[in-house]
Automatic annotation (TrEMBL):
Keywords: ATP-binding, Nucleotide-binding. The keyword ATP-binding applies. PROSITE patterns: ABC_TRANSPORTER_1 (PS00211), ABC_TRANSPORTER_2 (PS50893). It comes from Dactylosporangium sucinum. GO terms for molecular function: ATP binding; ATP hydrolysis activity. PANTHER family: ABC TRANSPORTER G FAMILY MEMBER 20 ISOFORM X1, ATP-BINDING CASSETTE, SUB-FAMILY H, MEMBER 1. Residues 5-228 form the ABC transporter domain. It holds the Pfam family ABC_tran. This is Multidrug ABC transporter ATP-binding protein. Transmembrane segments: none annotated. CDD domains: ABC_DR_subfamily_A (cd03230).
Length: 246
């Protein structure tokens, strides 16, 4: 399977306001694909559609060859939400072992996941007593414990220090080398260069679906921040020209 995710003409609305406009894109299997854009641009809404928990207006989302959210995907897709989704009255290790047990895995898999997110020293602390950044990492450990074929991560590095952010990105690429596909959202453009492929989004519009190198080449700059701004301007100009023609 060349693509883990195939999205065709996806439209999502909240009330009368459209959140995503005719979204068509793909995520290659075995890649670390970044979904980047400002806060409020529609990243979380798109990720919810990929995992099958978002009501859509039209279009299709196919994940690992199945409709998003369908039964065959339940043990193949891991999802990390922005809000930590772990039990505050359990320790880090207990949370990881509980989620591992849901997949029929033992304590070794749980302990490995806890180490991979840098929480080995805090494994016996109650999640409710952790800092916000540590709690987010505890959630990440539970999301990666089963090494899912598709891992959807919503802002996984927010609130983490630079050293840990670097370690997490190394882990993301290691998971990809082991066969997982990762879709990682961020509003920090300096993380774009860490991805194999980029989906750049602004105000519900997909303005780029390409490699970081191709995005730089298209925008005519090596700075990905500047590249994003230029592509936004290009998109706005095209929209204005279409309105004039209409």
């Amino acid at each position: 399977m060349s693509n883990a995710i195939e999205v065709e003409h996806l439209v999502i609305a909240r009330g009368k306001r459209r959140v995503l406009h005719d979204f068509t894109c793909s995520v290659p299997s075995g890649s670390v694909t970044g979904l980047l854009g400002p806060s409020g641009s529609g990243k979380t809404t798109f990720m919810r559609a990929v995992v099958g928990v978002q009501k859509t207006v039209s279009g299709t989302v196919t994940v690992l060859g199945h409709p998003a959210g369908s039964k065959p995907l339940r043990d193949k897709v891991g999802y990390l939400t922005q809000a930590p989704s772990v039990y505050a009255d359990l320790t880090v290790r207990e949370n990881a072992r509980y989620f591992a047990s849901l997949y029929g895995l033992g304590s070794n898999a749980a302990d490995e996941a806890v180490r991979d997110v840098g929480l080995a020293e805090a494994k016996n602390q109650l999640v409710g007593q952790l800092s916000g950044g540590q709690r987010a990492r505890a959630s990440l450990a539970c999301a990666i414990v089963s090494k899912p074929r598709l891992l959807v991560l919503d802002e996984p590095t927010v609130g983490q220090d630079p050293v840990l952010r670097n370690e997490l990105w190394q882990r993301f690429h290691e998971l990809a080398r082991q066969g997982s596909t990762l879709l990682v959202s961020s509003h920090v453009m300096d993380e774009a260069g860490r991805c194999d492929r980029l989906l750049l989004i602004r105000e519900g519009l997909l303005i780029a679906d390409d490699t970081p190198a191709a995005v730089r080449a298209r925008a005519g700059t090596d700075d990905l921040d500047e590249a994003f701004l230029r592509l936004v301007q290009e998109s706005e100009q095209q929209g204005t020209e279409k309105e004039k023609v209409a």
